[in-house]
Amino acid sequence: MALLLPYVPSYITVHLGPPSVPAENVTVSFRDYVKNVACSEVYPTWDEDALRANILAITSFALNRVYTEYYRVRGYPFDITASTAYDQQFYKGRSFFANISRLADELFDDYVRRVGFVEPLAAKFCSGTTVTCEGLSQWGSQNLAAQGWGWLQILKNYYGPNIELVTDAPKADYRESYPGAALRQGSRGRSVAQIQTALNRISQSFPAIPKLTVDGVFGTATEAAVRIFQRVFGLSEDGIVGRQTWYELERVYAGVLKLSELRSQGLRYQDLDWEFPEPLRVGDRGERVRQLQYMLAVAAQFVQVVPSPAVDGIFGPGTRDAVKAFQGYKGLPVTGEADDRSWDALYELYSGIEDRVLGNAALFPAVDTAPTNAANARARLEALGYRSGGLQQALRAFQQLNGLPVTGRLTEETARAITLQYRALQYSQSSRMTQYPGTPLAIGSRDAR
User: Fold this and answer.
1) Which of 195, 198, 335, 396 is least enclosed, having the fewest CB within 10 Å?
2) Which domains does the chain have, with CATH numbers?
3) For the whole model, what pTM was predicted?
């Protein structure tokens, strides 16, 4: 139910107190908000890498609040509070330190996210002295910077190795996710597809809600699912998605995915709206290109003539060749450009693979802990597609492909990365396609148990 892609709002509204306590609401530019919080939370005398790490945590956390409409879906007329018990420190009218202001001007439109996830990381932090928490330690970050650690090393130390930086995010005025008019039988389009996607994911936690085909068409099945959702969550049971039902859907959807938590299950690229964009061609960049590449990479494992492109968001020769090969396979004009016919045909194939192959939860047994022994690690690596050679060779291959130190040993960092990828294969974690297994799948292939 969240907006398709995160954006940096022109302005953000801050509640000068805890959420439920009456207090003034102050609207400031997002850039000035970042400066204010940074000057209120950290010290200008700290090393620059510590300041950068903290500012990126501040922007990421605030953007997560905006992206998930965390307070808006709960009926509050603001985006974030000035209470450190809930959010970040903000002082109305305070002055800014010159060096922090300069860094905030540079970093206010950058944010941290988990690799493969869409939403800005809920990058929680605390002082690390009087208060400790699961996220970043502010004083700890300064101690690491004083030892020569770079800002990215500091962030990975606290938030894990599987994070990346998004730079120069798009800017926009605040816009609520509610489409502006109630959705009911006969409605069509992206907003209906968002409802269907949200209901499918929610149904994994509330099985009374039936699964839906995500087709963007509000038919009888979608109305029935909406009615059951409304009944379960105490709403007026009319089968219509008005403002109240929309925001309750968004609140529950964000809740089951833990989008506002540091340990989010994550909104992945494949959970986004798959409606055809403008034609994509060589030279294009962005998330739509990444979606195209992701679908091609999945298709390549089932269609031998289609090569697997890099999923990097850049439409280069490799992506063009994969599009051409797919067009030839489907009997479409071989142009190398992803037009509407090519996109629809590719999505149809991709969706079919999802339903037939990953739609059976029995294929993906749940595992909640990191591998603690060689046999356990070997079984998970095989399930991820690392089947050749012995355990050491499989570990080295996994480490090399995932940007880890190539030691061939089951380090804590490697075990954690294996677990993250293995969890991504569990259908119970997502209503959409997840992690590519690493090797082509063909007749006779099976997962390790």
Assistant:
1) 335
2) 8-172 (no CATH), 190-267 (1.10.101.10), 274-358 (1.10.101.10), 362-429 (1.10.101)
3) 0.60
